[in-house]
Amino acid sequence: MKIGILSATVWEVRPAIRSLGLAPAAPGVFDGEAGKHSVSLRLSGMGQERARRAALSFSGFSPRLLIATGFCGSLKDHVKPGDLVLDRAKSDSKYADALIQTARKLDIPCHAGAIFTSGHMVVRARDKRRLGTETGAIGVDMESQAVAEALRRRGISLLFVRAVSDGADQDLPDVGGVLAENGRLQKGALMKILAKPGQWADFARLGLGSRKAGSNLARILKEFIGHV
């Protein structure tokens, strides 16, 4: 079976690329064989329009299943960094059930609930909690809704699963001048971080959450793809 994987940035899925044994095939494209499946992982960059274009770029590969993944922020206090968020409403029920079973096997907390797609980064804890209350969603990203809309009628099974990088109680540091829109670190990023000593703790906390999220994402994707 052909499986597509779509993520906004490489740092969200770098551990997964390694664990699945994927190799660079083109800029922003990593291909390989994982178990009995042909896998193509593609990077979209951040935001809905980039995600939509990247989702449509899979037309030549013709995957039977596309996994929209990466990191998300938590909108609920019980959804912690490193936990998985599965958007069941957007996902094929067969693959959603299989992923839940896989997460249980690996002892990775997996929460089924809506992922809200925002047009901008939600950086303040108060705004995350407000968004969770207003929308009922448990996670927030910047791409999932665009992917769902782009591929809704194209005969591809979809699975939306993300790992939490930052908790609902967590303010994010100012990443202006640090991250480019393609998700890569900008030139001089380290110096810009060092110039913001008041946010060092926030950067460190985000780094720890992102490391745990990336590790759990790699584990779930390898096990899920290996047995689906």
Describe this structure in words.
The protein is an alpha/beta fold and 228 residues long. It has one domain: Rossmann fold (3-Layer(aba) Sandwich). It is 38% helix and 23% strand. It contains seven helices and eleven strands. It has helices spanning 10-20, 48-56, 93-106, 125-135, 144-151, 189-194, 200-227, and strands at 2-7, 23-26, 29-34, 37-43, 65-68, 71-74, 84-86, 110-112, 115-117, 139-141, 157-166. Strands 1, 2, 3, 4, 5, 6, 7, 8, 9, 10 and 11 form an eleven-stranded mixed beta sheet that branches. The mean pLDDT is 91.
Helix vs. strand class: alpha/beta
Low-confidence stretches: none
CATH topology: Rossmann fold
Radius of gyration: 17 Å
Portion in beta strands: 15-25%
Based on CA inertia axes, which overall geometry fits?
globular
> Which percent range fits the helix content?
25-40%
Instruction: Write down the domain tally.
Output: 1
CATH architecture annotation name: 3-Layer(aba) Sandwich
Mean pLDDT: 91
What is the CATH homologous superfamily assignment? Nucleoside phosphorylase domain
Give the termini distance in whole angstroms: 10 Å
Question: Could you name the CATH class?
Answer: Alpha Beta
Q: Please count the beta strands (DSSP E, at least 2 residues each).
A: 11
- Individual helix count: 7
SSE series? EHEEEHEEEHEEHEHEHH
Give me a quick take on this structure.
This protein has 228 residues and is α/β, with parallel strands linked by helices. The protein has helices at residues 10-20, 48-56, 93-106, 125-135, 144-151, 189-194, 200-227, and strands at residues 2-7, 23-26, 29-34, 37-43, 65-68, 71-74, 84-86, 110-112, 115-117, 139-141, 157-166. 38% of the residues lie in helices and 23% in strands.
